[in-house]
Amino acid sequence: MRISFNKSVTESLLAKIRSGEVMSRNEKFNLIIQLSIPSILAQVTTVLMFYIDAGMVGSLGAEPSAAIGLVEPATWLFFSLVAAVTMGFSVQVAHFIGANDFAKARAVMRHGYVFGLCFSFLLLLITFLIGFQLPVWLGGGADIQHDATCYFLIFSLIIPFHLIEYMSAAMLKVSGDMRRPSFMSILMCVLDVIFNYFFIFPTRTISVLGMEMTMPGLGAGVTGAALGSLLSFICVALPLAYYAIFRSPILAWKLDVERFVWRWQYVWNAMKIGAPMALQYLLMNGAQLVSTMIVAPLGNISIASHSFAITAESLCYMPGYGISEAATTLVGQSVGADRRDLYRSFAWMTISLGMVVMAFMGVIMYIFAPEMIGLLSPVTDIQILGTSVLRIEAFAEPFFAAAIVAYSVCVGAGDTLKPSLINLGSMWLIRLTLAYALASQYGLRGVWFAMAVELSLRGMMFIFYLFRRLKKT
């Protein structure tokens, strides 16, 4: 089977969905790969950004690493709420594009930016109200509370820019343009590394090709890592929004011939799609915070190992998220075009591909776990503990992929309530209960064993749910 990585080929295959033409299995697979590869590369490079961040901070010692690891789940919580709002609008855009109604797609997009920015500033206000007490609530020691607070508050300033970046990228992706958002994501990672290099470390003398030279630096440590991330988001969010709003061949607002009219129905539809996702993200990330609270009493070594292992594991499951973005786009356009046959076919093909890819990544993670953790921290105790928990998690990767991609299939179809309940029930009733029971006796290894069991069961539940749903369509 020949895969042609060509923009015009992608557009012609997406047009077949909207026009009702029959697609061969090879054409479907070709389209899945074409949409997945750029997204996978973007997801992996995004994780590399956090990976390099963690490695730079990790070189400063266990305490700075623990400071970031303590509040990191809270930053994910607010970022995930931004994602929920964005998906509420982008799914509608995918459906309208699938139905060849580009004018309504652009109208929904406008509503998304306005409503999303208002929501992001509300989140920003909340972060500043809780930021000074958050490290204390999470059980962090006095030695890391100050750094944790500084990191969280500065990182929170990213929220409005993340909304602009994520909304612009999501709109372009559901229109079939995966390449540009992916390229900008890679650029953001490169910029983040450059900014962090100068912000984290102090002015120092380095050797380049045998020559000594002075490298300027802010020496801000944990605070510098947050500043670097903030600037990288700003540098990417604004150009991406410009392209989506002014240059996109489908979404550019200049293509509208009628005056823009605010319609609350689009916001209501977005809330119906996004609210279950927001509640899920709120409770899922809340569960991550509870998990952090379970880990925190185990000490700074366990906190840092937990954070580094999560960052390292992300390199393995990001391909699943890349494929899931392709699934959302393809299923969304298929549903909008009323192509139930394609909906079912794309669902199972993307899930199968995700499981195969992440099973391979699980093998890689098991073999190279020592090297993955070793790049993040020079502390021997962290390396040993981080390696052991990564190898526990490696066995859960295939079913984790099933959960990731199946959930995105449901999102593309506009079905978010029941899948969100599956995620919540699995996390709160299985993972946290088992983690709490095992942590006292087995420490961090017990917490990660609970995680592996829960992810495997969640993947099985999603496969069963989707099987029953697709059988009825």
Automatic annotation (TrEMBL):
- GO (cellular component) term, any one: plasma membrane
What parts of the sequence cross the membrane?
A: 31-52, 76-99, 111-131, 151-171, 183-201, 221-245, 346-369, 389-409, 421-439, 445-467
Major place of residence: membrane
Q: Does the keyword Transmembrane helix apply?
A: yes
What name appears for this protein in its UniProt entry?
Multidrug-efflux transporter
Origin superkingdom: Bacteria
Report the membrane topology from the UniProt record: Multi-pass membrane protein
